[in-house]
Amino acid sequence: MPSLIINTNLPRAKIPQDFLSKATEMMSKQIGKPSKYITICVHPDLIMSHGGSDDPCASVHVTSIGKLGPDVNKDHSANIGSFIHETLKIPMDRFYIQFNDLLPSNVGYNGTTF
């Protein structure tokens, strides 16, 4: 159930065609969960700024049941941040990554919870 949600002011045309598949593969390796459970969502063309500037920026949210926490989030931040920088060309100092470790009972899937 890991998810990667990227809110950005980049135009849709600047999001590579293969971004969703590459992001799914990266998240599967980074979080250590099967690709079939990973959701990637990109919201482009937003009116947004970072530090008062409307240069390319993003707000990134990573959620998962487990596999997140103080002992691993620095590694996640480095690798997910590098991926976003390399694929979307957004400087790493132009986005924050928020991590949210969810309780299994708070995530619904296929008519039940985890």
Automatic annotation (TrEMBL):
Keywords: Cytokine, Isomerase, Secreted. Its EC number is 5.3.2.1, 5.3.3.12. Gene3D superfamilies: Macrophage Migration Inhibitory Factor. The lineage of its organism: Eukaryota, Metazoa, Spiralia, Lophotrochozoa, Mollusca. It holds the Pfam family MIF. GO terms for molecular function: cytokine activity; dopachrome isomerase activity; phenylpyruvate tautomerase activity. It catalyses: L-dopachrome = 5,6-dihydroxyindole-2-carboxylate; 3-phenylpyruvate = enol-phenylpyruvate. It is an enzyme of class 5 (isomerase). Belongs to the MIF family. The keyword 4Fe-4S does not apply. The keyword Isomerase applies. InterPro entries: Macrophage_inhib_fac, Macrophage_inhib_fac_CS, Tautomerase/MIF_sf. GO terms for cellular component: extracellular space. It comes from the Eukaryota. This is L-dopachrome isomerase. It is found in: Secreted.
